[in-house]
Amino acid sequence: MKLRNPLIVGSSGLTSKADKNGKWEEAGAGAVVLKSLFEEQIEAQGDLLMAGASDYPEAEDYVRAYVRANGREEYLQLIRDSKAACHVIPVIASVNCYRADTWADFAAEIERAGADALELNVFYLDTDIHSDSREVLRHYSSILKDVRRRISIPIIMKIGKGFSTIPAFVNRLQGFGANAVVLFNRYYRPDIDIERCRIVAAPPFSDPSELGDTLRWTAIVSGALPDMPIAASTGVHTWQDAIKCILAGASAVQLCSTLYKHGAKVIPEMITQIADWMEHTKYESVEEFRGRLSLSNAADASMYERTQFMKYISSRETI
Predict the structure, then answer these.
(1) 236-285 pLDDT, tens per residue?
(2) Sequence-separated (6 or more) residues with CB below 8 Å from residue 145
(3) Of the N and C termini of the chain, which has fewer Cβ atoms inside 10 Å?
(4) Predicted structure pTM score
(5) pLDDT at 217 over 80
(6) What are the residue boundaries of the Dihydroorotate dehydrogenase catalytic domain, all occurrences included (predicted)?
(7) Coil, strand, or helix at residue 6?
(8) CA distance 299 to 301
């Protein structure tokens, strides 16, 4: 999938309307990822409609099926309308799911609606202390393989950073049919209100300090799997951050929090500043510097390793 530049508008409320997505194209974005369709969201809508109706299981099943079907149709229409609004850039659909049986067939409908690719956001939170860690891989691979069998458009797997062997995991995903990965998904985060003694939502936006993990694993995965396209996400707030990610090996970066904070002007500003930097450093294309500082190319690649962090801290005598 060809992009005119590496700046992708990430899945969020900013991409929930077709007219908004047309404006992202006008602003200069390389692609847009539509707001995710959440399985949990559809189930919750059905539950709200059926509150107090547990005595009628047939009606309950009907309403849940109706809500699910209508939620899907609205999403398919968003794809069609966004494709009509975006004449140049790819429109990437996004599905947030945790069950293969629910979403595999819907992926084919997404392709027929005109999506250029599908970002598959699988979140499997296993809290069972007796579970086998291999079950997580089986869960992801089962969904990916089911979807891959049904569609021909690229599948982009958006994963979190909570895996113990991220390069091996990405390698397996590539083997199962993933065409690219996003590093990383930033999941909902809980917090605790100590005054009211209740669980609350933590701030939703990423912080620039979170870029370090994104850089590290982008560099490591890119070094190990140079033919696997990576979109760097989480902590990317400035044009300098975008350049760092590309140097580490990313093919693209996803922008979200910085767009919420500063608006659409961020994109043309970043494009101009990246172009100025490339002219200053004598690069004629993004491909010329992509991966120059990946794990396999950087002269000081050991800086990506955690043990080097400990050595760095232990050698400092002042703050």
Answers:
(1) 999 999 999 999 999 999 999 999 999 999 999 999 999 999 999 999 99
(2) 176, 177
(3) C
(4) 0.87
(5) yes
(6) 2-278
(7) coil
(8) 6
